[in-house]
Amino acid sequence: MIQPYLWIVIFGIITSFLVAYGNGANDLSNAFGTSYGSRVLTLTHIIIIATFCEFGGAALLGSKVSVTMSSGIASASSFTDEPYVLMYGFLCTLGATFLWLIIATWKELSVSSHQSVAGGILGFALVYGGFGSVHWAKPSDSFPYVTGVVPIVVSWIISPILTGAVAMVIYCAVRYLILERKNAAYVAPYTMPVVVFVTCFMEFVFIFLIAASSKLKWSFGRSAWVAAAVSGGIALLSIPCIALLQKRIRGMEKEANAVASEKGISVIEAMRSILIVGRPLPPEAIPQVSVISRPKGDLREGHEGAPREMDDLDKVLLSRSAVRCDPKESAGKSLDGPTETTGAVVFNNDDTDEDMNEDHPDSLDTPNHDGVEARMGGSHAASASHPAAIGADYPFISHDKQGTPHFDPRAEYMFRYLQVFTAACTSLAHGANDVSNAIGPLAAIWGIYTSHDVSNVAQVKIWMLCLGGIGIVVGLATFGMKIMRLLGEKIAVITPFRGFSAELATAMVVSFATMFGIPISSTHCITGAVVAVSMIDVGFRNVRWKIVLRMYAGWVTTLFFTALISAIFFAQGINSPTKGVGKSNN
Q1: CA–CA gap between residue 504 and residue 517 (Å, rounded)
Q2: How far apart are CA 40 and CA 326, in angstroms?
Q3: Residue 346 belongs to what H/E stretch?
Q4: What is the Cα–Cα distance from 273 to 169, expressed in whole angstroms?
Q5: pLDDT tens digits for 188-235?
Q6: DSSP collapsed to 3 states, 361-378
Q7: Can you name the residues that pair with 346 across neighbouring β-strands?
Q8: DSSP 108-156
Q9: C-beta neighbour count of 302 within 10 angstroms
Q10: CA torsion, ordered 78, 156, 154, 161, to nearest 10 deg
C-alpha cells in the first residue's frame, strides 16, 4: 500500500531542494542586496556568511514556520479519506514554486517564495475540495490569534510597512546623532560601543526568544536580560576597536590623498572609492558627473593623456552647489565636429564663486563658462584648472543628481563593520523563516507517508531543515547576482549606513515573525526598508517608483501564477488514467 507512493517522497525531496535553490537565488539575494549594493561585502563574502547563517537559521530556528506552511493553509481534514492525494498536492506545490522562482529570477523579477508556496497550496486545495478545503481565517489561542490564508496575506502588506517604519527610525536617529554633526568623523568612532550594544541587543533578544523559549522554556524577561548581558559583553569588547577604527580612518585619508593626486579626483571622492572597496558605483549613486565637450584639439596639453585642466582636480569642492567631473578624456561627435571631454566643475544652482569664497577663504578664483547648463544640467561651469581648494578634513554633505545626501565617508566607515553583523543577522532570520517555503510541503509529504494519516503533516525533521539550508546557499552562489543587483543598486543609493539601517530593520521584523511562527517575506521587508530610507533621502515623489511597482506587480502575479500552475499539475495528476492504483487503493 505504501510502495506505490514512494515516488512522491523521492520527487518531493528533489523538488524541495530545488525550491530551496530558487529561494536562495531570488529571496536570499534580496536579503543580501543592500550589503552588496553598499560594497561592504563581495559575492564571495556573502556566500561564506550565508553558508553558516542560513544553514544555522534553518536548522536551529526554522521548524516553527515550517509547521505553519505545512498545515496552516490546506484543511487536512478534507483529505482524510485520501491522504496520498494530499501528498501529491504538496508535490505539485513544490513543482509550481520552483518553476516560478526560476522564471522570475531569469527575468530579474524579485518575487516572494512565501507567496509562491501559498499560491501553490491554494491551487491544489481549491481544485480538490473548493473553498472548504482551505483554512481562510481559523481562530487560534496564541498570537496572532488567527491562522490560515488571511493572516499570511495581511502579513505581506503589513511587513514592508512595519519594516520601513523601523528602518526610518534607525536611519533618522543615527543620521541626526552622528552623521550630520560637523565633527562626525571625530565622533563616529566613539559611538561604536553604543551602536554595537543596541544592534546586538535588538537581534539577540529575538534569537533567545525563538530558541531558548522553545528549548529551555525561558520567559521574555529572562531572554531579554540574557540578551542585554551578551550584548553588553560584546560592546565592551568593541571598545579597543575605537583606536583601530581611528587608525583605519587616518590610513584612509592618507590613501585618499594619493589616489586623488593620481586619478584627478577630489579627496572626498577618493575616500568614497576606498569606502566601497574599489568596485565602481552604479551611475545613479555617483554625485552628478558632468563634462564639457570642446572641439577636438582644444585643451590637449597635459601629462599621460590627461588634460592640463585636471591637474588640480583633487581639490575640487563638492557641496550642494558643485559636482565633480570625470577625469578621463574620451572622444565623441557633435554638430560642431569631433569632440573630446575636458575638465570642468559644474554647479547645479546659481551660487557665485564669491559666495563660496566667503565660506572658504582658501578657495581659488574660478572663471565661469556660461551657456553650458543645457548640456550639463547646471547653471554655470568652471574650468578645472582653478578649482575651489579644500582640505581632507572639510565637513560637508554632498548630494547626487537625485538629491541623495552623501555623508562624510570617514564617519560612515564604522558602518562597514556593523553591516557585516547585520547582514549575518538578516541571513540568520531569513534561514529561520524562509526555509519553511521549501521544507513545509516536504514535511507534510513525509508525515503522511510515514503515518498514513493527514493529521501528521507537520513532522519537521532536522535533515529536512539542513536540506533546505544547503539548497538556499547553493542557489545564492550560482544564480543570485541578478536579483542582488536589483535591490542593491537599482532601487536606491545604498551606502554602508543605509544598508545597516535596512538590514537591521529587516532582521528585527523577520525574527519577530519567526518567533510567533508567522511566515513573512524577507523580500517584502527589505524592499520596504530600502524604499523608506530612500523616501527620507530624496522625498516621496523622487523614489524610483517604476522599479518598485514592477516588483509589486511580480508579488501580485506570483500568487495567481503558482496557484494556476499547481492547480493544472494537480488536476492532470488525479484525473489521469492509472493502472493498478486508484482511489479505491487508498
Answers
A1: 20
A2: 24
A3: strand 344-347
A4: 28
A5: 888 889 988 988 888 788 777 766 655 667 777 888 888 899 999 999
A6: CCCCCCCEECCCHHHHCC
A7: 323, 381
A8: T----HHHHHHHHHHHHHHHHHGGGGB-SSEE-SSTTSEESHHHHHHHH
A9: 16
A10: 170
